[in-house]
Design a protein that fits this description.
The protein is an all-alpha fold. Among the domains are: about 50 residues, Arc Repressor Mutant, subunit A, CATH 1.10.10.10; about 50 residues, Arc Repressor Mutant, subunit A (Orthogonal Bundle), CATH 1.10.10; about 50 residues, Winged helix-like DNA-binding domain superfamily/Winged helix DNA-binding domain (Arc Repressor Mutant, subunit A, Orthogonal Bundle), CATH 1.10.10.10. It is built from twelve helices and two strands; from the N terminus they run E-E-H-H-H-H-H-H-H-H-H-H-H-H. It has a two-stranded antiparallel sheet. Helix 4 packs across helix 5 and helix 11 runs antiparallel to helix 12. It starts with a strand and ends with a helix.
Length: about 230
């Protein structure tokens, strides 16, 4: 039996550790040779690089971070006078925040008690603004219903009045056709206001509700209001 072998309980030989040590030594020698030839590369790769430099390099090479020239802000058209551009900006604000009509915005822009723009600047604004006049009329009608409990006919008249909102008839009709309102409830709320603030009788309230010079509710809406007035 060789000195590197051991006898197992079943009589078979078990190989010792000597071959493994030889392999380890060989690998160590190869590693030492490779380490000498690659020392300079290892040294170079061990030079620290700042995180800021890496981040800067990544940002520069990332095409997703580059803003396409087509998305850059459009230059101001110097051919349009500043007053005209200001009038346009004001007109769009009145439309978006107050849902005013085309005629109403024009009057506000030119009014001596309003914006005091020139008629030419105001007309430029009206001609170049983007607005959905039907939607503006609808939003205004919804406010009259929700806050003042007006009748359908009363809202329509207010929308088209030259002393009111100055929408066109078609815009006003679109508005009253699409407004979300309970006209019976509006009549009742109006009747309660007359009763509490003016101490009117139910009969007088009914007349005021249906009058063409008053609230312009239908007779059935006025009947509902009086019946539920309490």
């Amino acid at each position: 039996m060789k000195s590197g072998d051991k006898q197992t309980p079943n009589g078979k030989k078990k190989t010792g550790c000597l071959p493994i040590l030889v392999v380890v030594l060989v690998l160590a020698a190869i590693g030492s040779t490779l380490g000498n030839s690659g020392g300079e590369q290892a040294a170079a790769s061990s030079v620290p690089v700042s995180s800021a430099a890496v981040s800067s390099a990544e940002d520069a090479s990332d095409p997703a971070e580059t803003v396409p020239s087509s998305e850059a802000e459009a230059p101001v058209d110097d051919s349009v006078p500043t007053e005209y551009r200001s009038a346009l900006a004001s007109a769009e604000t009145y439309s978006e925040l107050m849902h005013m009509s085309k005629a109403g915005i024009y009057d506000q822009l030119t009014s001596e008690y309003g914006e005091q723009f020139s008629p030419e600047a105001a007309q430029y604004a009206i001609d170049n603004m983007e607005a959905d006049w039907n939607e503006n009329a609808l939003q205004t009608a919804q406010n009259y219903s929700d806050q003042m409990h007006m009748s359908k006919a009363g809202i329509y008249d207010q929308l088209i009045s030259e002393y009111g909102e100055q929408f066109t008839e078609s815009e006003a009709q679109y508005a009253v056709d699409h407004v979300q309102a309970d006209w019976n409830q509006n009549a009742l709320e109006t009747a309660r206001s007359y009763q509490e603030n003016m101490d009117m009788s139910p009969s007088a309230i009914w007349d005021q509700l249906v009058s063409e010079y008053g609230e312009q509710f239908t007779e059935s809406e006025a009947d509902y209001a009086i019946a539920n007035l309490g």
